[in-house]
Amino acid sequence: MAVRAGRALPFPARFARSDAALPLGLLAPTIVFLTLLILIPVAQALLLSFQATEGTLGIEAYRRMVHDVAFADSLRNTLLLLVLVVPVQLVLALAMALLIHSRFPGHGIFLYIFALPLAISDLAAGIVWLSIFADTGYMNSALAGLGLATEPINFLSYENLHLVLLTIIVAESWRATAIVLVILLAGLQLIPREYFEAADLFGASRMKRTLLVVLPMLRPSLQSALIIRTIFAFQTFAVVLALAGRQFPVLSYEAYDWYYNNRNEFIAAAFAALILLMTLTVTVFYLRLLRVKDAEIQR
Amino acid sequence: MRHARVAAAFALVAAILASACGGGTGGAPSGGTAAPGAAAVSSDPFVMLSTQLNTVTESEALRSQILSGFTAAKVEFRGEEAGPFADRIAAEAKAGKGTVGVIGALHGDFGAISADLFEDLGPLATKLKDRGFPAEFMELGKLGTSKQIYIPWMQATYILGVNKQALQYLPSGASVDNITYTQLTEWCKNIADKTGRKRCGLPAGPKSLLHRLIQGYMYPAYTGGLVTTYKSSEAATLWRDLKDLWQHVNPQSLQIDFMQESMLSGEVWVGFDHVARLVKAFEGKPNDFVAAPAPKGPKGLYYMSVLAGLAIPKSTPNKSGAEAFIDYMTTPGVQSKTLTAVSFFPVLNQALPADLPPHLKIEAEGVQKQSKHPDAKVALLPVGLGAKGGEFNKVQLDTFQRIVIKGEDIQKVLNEQAAILQNVMNDTKAPCWRPDPPSTGPCQVK
């Protein structure tokens, strides 16, 4: 009522009563968090990458990055993993989520089993898979026990990089499908029951219901899952390191190697900047591709 | 003459040759306090940050068997990778307040940290001069500066670990204690041909020490140098031979950081690695293994002596305690205990304990055969490279990748990598180190 009294209030009080106050207030912690922990470090890393030695600006670090022995291989391998792993995981996770969502008896147990890899650290997962695929690992023991192989198979040999790639895909799929599953399952559970009932009423088959109701309604979750998975795929590191060592270089390993082993933070930052650029590009691409139009929401 | 003198000083055998019952096991109980006459020692707790002994078993052995004997102040051992290690020292110095009281690291790790961040241990070195540190070790501890940056702590080297089953496949006329690099290739080929499995191992994983084998063993043995001879015709021969050897090496070597696990599992019979990365094989199956000297090349049997030291950062929370701790760690008794606990050799000219456990006996015999070999010569760890040490190592590792793994043209790769090597030398202005001949100004690739 004091407002009506006509006296102009001081700015904070006026702001607190405006329409923008609530959304901005709710956003504030996120903005502070992102600025402190993401934006400032990103700016610092970019600044580092444009130096050759402390205090001089230039693109020397990028020049050396591009001419690095492992650059072409690591770029190719990172993209290769992205293209091969993400679709596999998406399909697997979708199938698993639908399976659990169908609420067959005992579906709860499957959720726990599928989500188990979430609790294991990257490197531990890599080492577990190493113990499976090593020359004297479980896989070779099993093959020998079944009489399928007389000599151990070198799954992880540089002489056969296709097999190395395959083991990495298997290990990565096992390790990181669960996060996609959790996101998709949450999305599935958000779809109102009425849609399914309506579909049933019109006699839609299971397949039709999945294709015409579930998938379109799941698009926002698919978008989040794709973005998160792709970002993780660019950062793939520990599993590859454990299984393939230096023979299968990826971008994040090169950044690590330049920083920790070669002690050159500038070139390491250049690699990090490249990963950031690629991540941003792909994220923008997904946001546009899977955009939910306003009209669709109102339909 | 000088070779002989340095070799003698560097050789681990200096420690071993002395009579085994010389009572050098540090008869005097080292109570863990500073030597008599020292100023009062503060009991403020501090952290020992180390790039060495940072595996779980090594850390545990150090804590329970070595640190427990130091009672003047509470010391907490923390192992760390070389990268974060250097960052933490720099960060504590910047903050002006530290928890790290003592640093334990390899000679090369110290180079990555600015010399200004360390206390000058000159006075402590003077106090400890009767301990019997080889003069060369103390000189290395200065890292080319005028102040004593670290006090030598423990040492190691690289040798061959050999499963006895492999001995029957030695090429005719070759002796395991006196083998050339080409005979090693023949040996590995024999093993692969006759057993159907490639059972020789070179550690070439992401955390392996392959670069040291190239720097301190292969290059000097073939070319008599490292930097100056990097793209010489002798170097080309070395890489051709290494490529041949690699044909018969277990392809899993690219994931192997420590040879001992693969040797214990039987995947590798002949492994070339750091003694501390072989010793678990000797410990697990002492009856199955022998240790042998590194192979020799046309220029002799070169080997590298690895030295670790203890230093005090200027940000130490307890300087008197840290000095008393270094004093304690370098007493003959604790040096012997360090050997039995973590398999690193003493840095003092002292006798080894007479009652060495079997795995250490195997290790000591191999080390001794290597340093007493008639063609043995010592190569130094890279000196004066500072933080560029990593980029220097990368030159050899990249050369290995390109020539041996990817099969690129040898001379072309050597010319290109030599140019990168020269840049590193120019950036650091490091003069040549043994076995390259001394230089004025930065070491030059010929």
Essential attributes:
heterodimer, A: 299 residues, MetI-like fold, flat, disordered N terminus, B: 446 residues, alpha/beta, D-Maltodextrin-Binding Protein, domain 2, 2 domains, 9-stranded mixed beta sheet, 17 helices, globular
Q: What's the quick description here?
A:
The complex is a heterodimer of chains A (299) and B (446). Chain A is mainly α and 299 residues long.
Q: What features would you describe in this structure?
A:
The complex is a heterodimer of chains A (299) and B (446). Chain A is mostly helical. Helix content of chain A is 73%, strand content 0%. Chain A has a single domain, classed as MetI-like (MetI-like fold, Orthogonal Bundle). The radius of gyration of chain A is 25 Å and the shape is flat. The N terminus of chain A is likely disordered. Chain B is of the alpha/beta class and 446 residues long. Chain B folds into 2 domains: 214 residues, D-Maltodextrin-Binding Protein, domain 2, CATH 3.40.190.10; 197 residues, Periplasmic binding protein-like II (D-Maltodextrin-Binding Protein, domain 2, 3-Layer(aba) Sandwich), CATH 3.40.190. Chain B is 41% helix and 13% strand. In chain B, strands 1, 2, 3, 4, 5, 6, 7, 8 and 9 form a 9-stranded mixed beta sheet that branches. The longest helix of chain B is centred in the C-terminal third of the chain and has 19 residues. The radius of gyration of chain B is 22 Å and the shape is globular. Chains A and B meet through helix 12 and helix 13 of A and helix 4 and helix 16 of B.
Head-to-tail CA distance between termini of chain B? 26 Å
At the fourth CATH level, what is the homologous superfamily of chain A? MetI-like
Molecular shape of chain A:
flat
| Structural domain tally of chain B | 2
Task: List the helices and strands of chain B in order.
Answer: HHEHEHEHHHEHEHHHEHEEHHHEHH
Q: What is the total tally of β strands of chain B? A: 9
Work out the helix count of chain A.
15
What structural class results from the helix and strand content of chain B?
alpha/beta
